[in-house]
Known about the structure:
The two termini are 39 Å apart. Helix 1 (5-12) runs parallel beside helix 5, helix 7 crosses helix 10 (237-246) and helix 8 (184-195) runs parallel beside helix 9. It is built from 13 helices and eleven strands. The strands form three sheets. Strands 8-7-6-9-10-11 form a six-stranded parallel beta sheet, sandwiched between helices. It has a three-stranded parallel beta sheet with strand order 3-4-5. The chain has helices at 5-12, 23-26, 50-63, 75-83, 113-119, 124-128, 146-158, 184-195, 210-224, 237-246, 256-264, 315-318, 322-332, and strands at 18-21, 37-40, 67-69, 88-92, 103-105, 167-171, 200-203, 228-230, 247-253, 268-272, 288-292. The chain folds into two domains: 2-128, Glycogen Phosphorylase B (Rossmann fold), CATH 3.40.50.2000; 146-332, 3-Layer(aba) Sandwich (Rossmann fold). Strand 7 (200-203), helix 9 (210-224) and strand 8 form a beta-alpha-beta unit. The site of iron/sulfur cluster (SF4) has 14 residues, from helix 12.
Amino acid sequence: MILTTPLIERLAEEGPVHVVATPANAGILANHPAVTSVILFDKRRADSGIGGMRRIARAIRATGATRAFLAQGSVRTAAVAWLAGVPHRIGFATSPGRVLYTRRVALDRSLHHAQRLWQLGSTPRASRDVGTETIPALRPSLFPSATDESHVRALLQEYDVGDREPLIALAPGSVWATKRWPSYDALAAQLVEAYGSTARIVVLGGSDDRELATSISSAVEAAHGPRVVNAAGRLSLLASAALLRRARVMVTNDSAPLHLASAMNTPTIAMFGPTIPAFGFGPLAERRRVVEEFSLACRPCDAHGPQRCPLGHWQCMRNISAERVVPLVREFVPSR
Length: 336
Ligand code: SF4
């Protein structure tokens, strides 16, 4: 959803944009000036059956939309657009839902995924002649509210973080186990040693990351006292974006927080293990570094990152030491 925002902005130049989103994703688009309305599609629960699809189709029909951009690519979303009677249904030629599209756009694997999505909004002629249209450098956009900012302020006050204290954000989580770089605890400890009281470490993540974040903050606290703000599970996605706007740098895996940092143009250090940036999901902040283990022939081994290393050694992540990352953080946040 975050990477779809450049397409949404492009389409908003031509008319109203109504976005169909799951409840989990909808909040990220709050306050976005390019979004006219958000239609909630609870496809795993309330709207999982044909009745739910019909309800969403009616909601889409009520908007009067004449084009549906099927960024997500499933047969179900294509079927909903068809049920809604949207005459032009546009998506990638490789998507499962392509049988129901009226225009299939070639997926250019050389592009960032934000650019591929943006290309769905190109004219039919340009999309037929992929490669002839100039694709701009793109960055997603998000718009945290004043309330999101106040939630961040309250959390930082809880940890006695000064208004001007530099923040170094770490996002250790990922749905895919092999994408989770295992040395965030060592990195946090080394950063606390390097910065002392001149910068603060903040661990970001969802409620599923709370245990991991707590293990990192507890490990640091045992040696150095309470120097880590544990924000995992405490902030919404947009409030996390608001916090990232304040952060001087973000160290993250190949996962959702990376795209939040891209949207807020927060300098990003991205850890890539079983996946590679060439898949199209690398960082887009102006200042960014990618850390990866180039010596392994097994990389990349999976489009998402498997839950277990198929070779058992997981060297793509284990070989990356915290010592290798600390100097990169220092590039963005000079230490004492
Ligand atoms: S097979 Fe290689 S790339 Fe895949 S998880 Fe294992 S070490 Fe990483």
